[in-house]
Every structure is written in structure tokens, then in C-alpha cells.
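Researcher: Here's a chain I'd like modeled. Treat it as a single chain, no partners, no ligands.
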Amino acid sequence: MIKKYLVLFLVFGFLVTGVLYAKAITPGDLGVPDPGVLPTSPFYFFKEWGRGFRRLFIFNPVARVELELGIVNEKAAEAAKVEEVFPENDDAVKKALENYKLAHERLMSRLQALKETSKNPNVDKLLRNLVEKITKHEQLFSELEEKFKEKAELKNLAGDAKDDLERLSEEADKKKVKQQEEEKESKNEGKTNEEGNLTSATVNVTENGFAPREVKIKRGGKVTWINKGTDAVWPASAPHPVHTGYPGFDALRGLANGESYSFAFDKVGSWKYHNHLNPSMTGVVNVVE
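Model: Modeled as a single isolated chain. C-alpha cells:
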């Protein structure tokens, strides 16, 4: 009877160990099966140069965050690979962990500077990807922290990485909350404009467009455009660039962040307009009796 229970215990222990082992994060789990040149290589600086070169040609705020997230993920994979290949080389592991921390700081800076939210579908995709990466990185550094429990410096570096990930997660949560608030605000503004007295309307402008893109007011009503983005915007009547569709409807200059422009419409009709500084950004003002 005792032997029976002993066998069952050993089998259970083997299964549990196997499950735990299977959950260990590898570079492949991070989407980087082959991290390539590692920080231990004397040629690693070429890899860093390449990353810096890519940064020079990316101007979209969301794309910048995506790039830094990709680099952070690559450096997490590098850290996992260095620990796998050089488990006894403390200096190599330390360098990989420090590289991760520096990349993480740049990612945090880019994410904090990101103002685009509700009107850009890429932001929602970015936040989902970010949360997924954070979850895997937290598991990776928890494993490294446990492996290095007898090596104080490495253990602390792995623990610091986990703390940084927690702060990054909090920042991502803030962006998600802001995104939801802006979506609600935009819906409420559209509802108020359609169900209210139609004497005025407000359009918020970001790099992603006019929100709401289409408004309805009564003749004599006023529409106000507020720049809530980082780039200057110039609301003006179609067509571009002459602005003759509705004479007088022209901000005449770019509006900086926080500035606004208002115009009263006394002609009934559907009046198309655009951002003179980015003609692909368009909107419509419907004026009724």
C-alpha cells in the first residue's frame, strides 16, 4: 500500500515538474526564436546601430512606441538566450539585463509621450500587444530572479526589471482608461449635437482626424474646432487648397495644441472641409433650417 502511494506521489511530482518546466519562457515564446547577435559579441554594436538607424525614419507616435516595444522584446529574448548559453557568465547576464533596462526606459518615455488614443485603431492594437509582452516578460524575469537567488546583483537586476514592467503596465492601464473616456466623450458629443438644440458643436482634432467627423447644426449655429493633438491643424472649407466651397470658412493658419477656431454657418447645406496641413483629414458640417 505504501509503495502504491509512493509511486503515485512520484508520478504526480514528475507531472507537476514537467508542467512547470514547460511554462519556462524561451526566446521563441517571445516571438524571437533566434535573437541573433548577443550582447556578448564584439559586433553587437552593429545591431544597436541598426536599431538607432530605424528610429531616425519613424515619425508616427504610435509607430515609435511599436518600434521600442519590439526592441525591448528583442532584448528580453537576448537576456533569455544569454542565460541559456552562458549560465555561469555573470558579466554576460548582467550586461543583457542592463541592456533590457535601458531599452525599457526608452519604451516608457515613448509611451508616456503618446497622446493619440481613441480615434486610432492602431492604439488599441498596440495596447493589447503591450499587455501580452508584459505578461511574458514578467514570467521571464520571475524565472531569472529565482535562478539568481544566490547572486544578489543579478537577482536585483531581474527584480528591477519586474518593477519596471509593473510601472509600464500601470501606464498602459492609464492609456486604456483615457482611450475609453475619449470614446465616451466623443459619443456623448455626437449624441448631444444630434439631440440638442443644434446651435453649436465642438470638434476635437488630433493626428487621427476630426472627432466627430460629421456634425449637424441649425443655420446660424457655430462650430468650434479644438486642437488636442501634437501637430498643428488648419480647418478650412473644401476644396483644397483654395477653400472656396464656403467662403470665409478658413482658420487662415495652423492651430497649435490647445488652440481653437470657431465659425458660424448661415447657409443651409452640407459643407465639406479638411485640414489644410493634411488634406487627407476631412469632415462635414451639415447645416439645417
